[in-house]
Every structure is written in C-alpha cells, then in structure tokens.
Amino acid sequence: MTQTPHNGGPDRLILHDLACFRGDRPIFLHLNAELSAGHALVVTGRNGSGKSTLLRIIAGFVRADAGEILWNGRDRDDHDLPWRERLHYLGHRDGIAGELSAGADLGHWAAILGVARAGRADRVAAALTALDIPHLAELPVRVLSAGQRRRLALARLLLAHRPLWVLDEPTTALDRSGSALVAGLIGAHLDRGGMVVTATHLPLGLGDRVIGLDIEEAAP
Asked: Which PANTHER family does the entry mention (predicted)?
C-alpha cells in the first residue's frame, strides 16, 4: 500500500490487508479497516474468531503475519514517539496489584503513564470519581469485587491522554450502570477527537460514529 503523507489533520488509523495464522491455520486474511478521529471501530465475531488477537496486533503486542498498520499515513512504528505511547490498551486481565490500595494502584499506573508527580494525586482522584469509585481509594485491591476491579482498570484511561483506546470487552463484570458509564467515557473520548477500537456487544449509542468490523468476514 502506498503511504500518503499526513498534513497535520485529524488522526487516522488504517489496517491494510492484515493476516494472522495460528500454526498453519489462518485466523483471518485480507482484513481491512480505516478509522478517523472521533470514531469507534467495533469488532464483532464469535468466540475464538480472533477478536482479541486483532486487538493485540493493533496494540503492538503481537505481530501480524502479513499486511500493515498505518498511523497518519506512515507505518505505525515509523514515528519518533513509540507506538504504545499513543494508545491505552485494556485487555481481559485488569493488571491490578492486589497488595496495594485502589488509590495506590492507580497512582502506580499514573507514574508509569508519565503523569507528573505534582499533579498525580489530583489526576487519580478525578479518575476514581469519574468511574464512581472514590470511596474505594483506601481499600486493598484484593477485597474488591470483579466489577469494582474492572472500574479501577478503566480509570487508567483517564490518567493520561492517549489518542487511541484499544479495549477488549471493556464491560466484562460490569452491571448496567457500569456499562452505561463505559459508553459515556467512550463517547466523551470521541468528542475530544480520540479514537476507539473495541470488541464489545455494548450498544454504544454513538450513531454514525461507529464503524463495524465483523472479523469472520475476513476468515478463510
């Protein structure tokens, strides 16, 4: 695919002719999608169809066996800023340290994400409030329910701005109010010019800002 220059306009992500194999068996072939700022790519397909693998390829944890991923017209790795510093990835595992309090765990992630020490406590408090869990700040993570742990993991999205969110079933373990909260977070991120790639059955309520990608259509 010919790479076209990006002239400072809105961010754009292109998946071009991606293929992935598990051993000798192809999971998907010739997968294509284009996503621009303010839009969400919703990946659907049955269990085992390769949704999580695709998200991990986009996030840079797994290499595609063929094809390319372009960010603003250039190979996603051909940039001064490392690719993973352009995105937040939330997988099935919450990545939470059980020996810490909820607030301390989030503070740990804030440091990893480069939030300045001077503003870290305020950023953590704001993220906990946005996920409706400020009352959990001093509780050990090990005593939290699965839904509370998921909210804590989602709070990391708000600690530092990253234009692309890659979310694998973000509403896992959440009740109806939690799922609605996630939809609101995604909508607000898109309003700010962000992008989201997600595998979810959650009705996001975003109208024509949602682009659907049925991964099974790219299956052999």
From this structure: ABC TRANSPORTER I FAMILY MEMBER 1 (PTHR43499:SF1)
| SS3 per residue for 108-139 | HHHHHCCCCHHHHHHHHHHHHHHCCCHHHCCC
Place of tokens 């740990």: 108
**Which of these, 155, 146, 166, lies nearest to 53 by C-alpha position?**
166
| Rounded CA separation 132/170 (Å) | 16
- Closest to 101 in 3D by CA, of 147, 152, 150, 141: 141
> Dihedral sign, CA of 192, 37, 176, 126?
negative
Domain 12-218 in this protein, CATH class: alpha beta
| Mean pLDDT of successive 10-residue stretches along the chain, which has 220 residues | 58 96 92 97 91 96 95 92 94 84 95 94 97 97 95 97 96 93 96 96 88 88
What are the domain boundaries of the chain? 12-218
Half-sphere exposure of 114 (CA within 13 A, CB side): 7
DSSP type of residue 145: -
SS3 31: strand
Task: Label the pairing between strands 12-22 and 210-214.
Answer: unpaired
* Residues whose CB falls within 8 Å of the CB of residue 100, separated by 6 or more in sequence, listed in order: 108, 140, 141
Query: Which DSSP helix (H) or strand (E) runs through 83?
Result: none
Q: 148: which 2 tokens?
A: 């509370």
DSSP per position, 181-202: HHHHHHHHHHHTT-EEEEE---
Q: Which residue has the tokens 């754009």?
A: 12
